[in-house]
Write a structure and sequence with these properties.
The complex is a heterodimer. Chain A has helices spanning 4-17, 49-55, 71-81, 115-125, 146-153, 161-177; strands at 22-30, 35-42, 85-91, 95-103, 130-137, 140-145. Chain A is α+β, with helices and mostly antiparallel strands. In chain A, a hairpin with a 3-residue loop joins β3 and β4. Chain B is globular, with a radius of gyration of 18 Å. In chain B, α3 crosses α4 (101-113). In chain B, β3 and β4 (94-96) form a beta hairpin. Chain B contains 5 helices and 5 strands, in the order αβααβββαβα. Chain B has a single domain (31-134), classed as Glutaredoxin (3-Layer(aba) Sandwich), CATH 3.40.30. The chains are: A alpha+beta, B alpha+beta. The A-B interface holds A 1-2, 6, 9-10, 13, 17, 63, 65-67, 69-71, 74, 114, 117-118, 121, 124-126, 148-149, 152-157, 159-167, 169-170, 173-174, 177 and B 4-11, 13-14, 16-18, 20-21, 40-43, 45-46, 50, 53-54, 57-58, 60-61, 68, 70-71, 73-76, 78, 130.
Chain lengths: 182, 135
């Protein structure tokens, strides 16, 4: 994975497959502590203790189509390479929270990448799932809620190319406004 | 500096979007539309499925082709990512492998518009060596 936005797209895939109805993605950048924290929280089916342990094993997957499951291990690798770590908290039938911490200025910390494209694509690609995305950079904050977007659209499908394009621009402009470096 | 876009701008666009949708005949009958699934698991994402998907959405819109582009999980063809499944109304779905932006353009021009099959199709009877061993 080349950047953090790709990891987000990937980890969200797990949440969607776990039957989540709401997925919360948050990125918190703190210059003073030199930290970047990515949290993906869902209300999907969750995992038991055994499965949580296995999730970090690249040779474990719940899929039948192939024998490996690299999504979480790759994120863990990138976090640990930039002197951070990855934690999974999960409870059956409640949901899962994955937290990846990075040293923000670390040379191996992947760039954030195309966040606006990723967020707009995850919202339009999974129209039945709601997404909340919060990006904090020190004291500045940008909040994006797919439920608000759907209210504003008033029946126009969120999968419309015109809408996707608009959301991409809106997220991009707002992130630039609060000073996020992609 | 230019004004940053907000949801209010989206509300203003709504009427335009609505009229564009009603113009399309089949928008309420998805089975009559071209359906494309882009495989978007770890393997697909790492190979650039996001760029392929973005391109497909934009290009199909530019050419005013009635199509739905959605995401799907891993289809088990990790060696040929990004993979897309193209389902033309009334035809069997076809899976293409190694679909970068250039290939996606060809699929639109030749397969979806022209109706001819291209190189790079993953046949439905394809099995992995693993599955062969189990037989």
């Amino acid at each position: 994975m080349r950047d953090i936005s790709m990891h987000i797209l990937d980890i969200i895939g797990n949440s969607v497959r776990a039957g989540a109805s709401l997925v919360e993605v948050s990125i918190e950048e703190k210059s003073a502590e030199d930290q970047l924290i990515l949290v993906v929280k869902d209300d999907g089916c969750g995992m038991d203790e055994e499965t949580v342990k296995n999730a970090l094993d690249p040779f474990f997957t719940s899929r039948k189509t192939r024998k490996v499951g690299l999504g979480i291990p790759l994120l863990q690798q990138n976090a640990e390479m930039s002197e951070g770590n990855l934690k999974i908290i999960s409870e059956l039938d409640k949901g899962t929270t994955i937290t990846a911490t990075f040293v923000r200025s670390h040379i191996d910390r992947p760039p954030l990448g195309d966040l606006s494209g990723t967020i707009s694509l995850m919202v339009s690609g999974n129209p039945t799932v709601e997404f909340l995305y919060i990006h904090q950079l020190n004291d500045e904050e940008f909040k994006f809620d797919s439920r608000e977007v759907k209210d504003a659209l008033d029946g126009v499908p969120i999968t419309e190319p015109g809408v996707i394009n608009f959301l991409k621009q809106m997220i991009g402009e707002n992130l630039t406004e609060i000073g996020v470096e992609l | 500096m230019a004004k940053v876009k907000t949801l209010d701008d989206l509300k203003k666009m709504r009427a335009d979007l609505q009229s564009k949708i009603t113009l399309r005949e089949n928008s309420d009958r998805p089975e009559k539309m071209v359906q494309i699934k882009v495989s978007m698991a770890t393997c697909g994402i790492a190979s650039g499925a996001k760029e392929t998907m973005n391109y497909l959405i934009e290009e199909l819109d530019n050419r005013a082709i009635d199509a739905v582009v959605t995401q799907t999980g891993c289809m088990g063809y990790c060696h040929s990512e990004p993979t897309i499944e193209v389902h033309l109304p009334g035809n069997d779905p076809v899976v293409y492998g190694n679909v970068d932006v250039k290939k996606a353009g060809e699929v639109i021009t030749k397969h979806i518009v022209g109706g001819e099959l291209l190189d790079g199709i993953i046949p439905t009877n394809y099995t992995t060596p693993d599955e062969d061993n189990q037989k």
